[in-house]
């Protein structure tokens, strides 16, 4: 599914975050230490190779809501932007911290003049954020930022399964209809 608002295309697809070779920066659902782990972080670090963890070491630890940018090593993109989402039920206010992940990533991408970004559904795996609520925050935050974006023209949400895609498509339809 794809919607274009204020010249920014927002796309939702089923896929693997490590296979987004046409995208400038892929976003990592990181841990505070910026180490490899499970889920998205494990997949990105495995595909990037050990150089990514080495580059990350001096940037860690990061706080919930924070985003930092690195190179990609063996990944086919220009940058990885690492975000620490809130652990649901622990890091508060969870909604504001999750929104900050998306806002801070967009700000870094703009600063670097990047044209395209691929986000996973941050915090919805190991960190336990309910998918529907997280999707509303993610999409509302990018749609709210869209009119101010100068460089970013494609924002792709890469979802792991069809159920997550359906939730994103439903929320995107509802929010973009309300524009
Ligand atoms: N591509 C796209 N989406 C994926 C992929 C993938 N390769 N793998 C998982 N997902 P998670 P979090 C989905 O756990 O909740 C790590 O261990 C997954 O189905 O990666 O922010 C880190 O080290 C879910 O919907 O991130 C941290 O400790 C979403 O991506 C912690 O998990 C996010 O799941 C971060 O937890």
Automatic annotation (TrEMBL):
Domain of life where this protein originates: Bacteria
Entry protein name: RNase III inhibitor
InterPro entries registered for this protein in UniProt: Macro_dom, Macro_dom-like
SMART domains the UniProt entry points to: A1pp (SM00506)
Alphabetical list of Pfam families matching this protein: Macro (PF01661)
SUPFAM superfamilies in alphabetical order: Macro domain-like
Domain Macro: residue ranges: 1-176
Organism: Pseudazoarcus pumilus
């Amino acid at each position: 599914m794809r919607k274009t608002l204020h010249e920014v295309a927002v796309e939702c697809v089923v896929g693997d975050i490590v296979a987004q070779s046409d995208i400038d920066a892929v976003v990592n659902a990181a841990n505070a230490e910026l180490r490899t782990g499970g889920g998205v972080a494990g997949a990105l670090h495995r595909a990037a190779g050990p150089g990514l963890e080495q580059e990350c070491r001096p940037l860690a630890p990061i706080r919930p809501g924070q985003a930092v940018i690195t190179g990609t090593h063996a990944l086919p993109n220009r940058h990885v932007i690492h975000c620490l989402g809130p652990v649901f039920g622990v890091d508060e206010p969870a909604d504001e911290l999750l929104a900050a992940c998306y806002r801070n990533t967009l700000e870094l991408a703009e600063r670097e003049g990047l044209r395209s970004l691929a986000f996973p559904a941050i915090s919805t795996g190991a960190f336990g954020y309910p998918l529907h609520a997280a999707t509303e925050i993610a999409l509302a935050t990018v749609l709210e930022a869209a009119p101010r974006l100068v460089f970013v023209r494609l924002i792709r949400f890469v979802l792991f399964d069809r159920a997550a895609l359906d939730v994103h498509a439903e929320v995107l339809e509802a929010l973009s209809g309300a524009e």
